[in-house]
């Protein structure tokens, strides 16, 4: 009986951890779908695009994790959207992207310009 409990506890812990990781990873897909749906006019690859996001897009970006979306972008996504515009949109609303990190399959996030030299 004691060995059964000793085996079951790590298995239950592993299952719970796996479910949490799956839920967290799955939420990036939900965020991506919502951002693409409501912000496509701003982030689409080919002009003309809007420079000012709609109120609905703004709300979605504020609730979404665009940094997380970077980790799940596919080549197919990158044919539809400009990853540079996606990063710019996220930065506009306070999301922090690590300079030098990858967003999507190939885009390297640039550093933000520093303060002007005096």
Give a short overview:
Keywords: Signal. The protein is 61% helix and 3% strand.
Keywords:
118 residues, mainly alpha, two-stranded antiparallel sheet, 2 strands, 61% helix, 3% strand, elongated, Bifunctional inhibitor/plant lipid transfer protein/seed storage helical domain-containing protein, signal
Work out the count of structural domains.
Answer: 1
Average pLDDT level: 87
Task: Report the β-strand fraction as a percent range.
Answer: under 5%
What is the gyration radius calculated from CA atoms? 19 Å
What low-confidence regions span 5 or more consecutive residues with pLDDT below 50? none
Question: Which bin fits the share of residues in helices?
Answer: 55-70%
By DSSP, the count of extended strands is: 2
- End-to-end CA span: 74 Å
Biggest sheet: strands side by side, in what order? 1-2
Shape: elongated
The major beta sheet can be summarized as: 2 strands, antiparallel
Q: What is the H/E string?
A: HHHHHEE
Secondary-structure content class: mainly alpha
Number of helices: 5
Keywords: Signal
Signal peptide: 1-26
Organism: Panicum hallii var. hallii
Protein name: Bifunctional inhibitor/plant lipid transfer protein/seed storage helical domain-containing protein
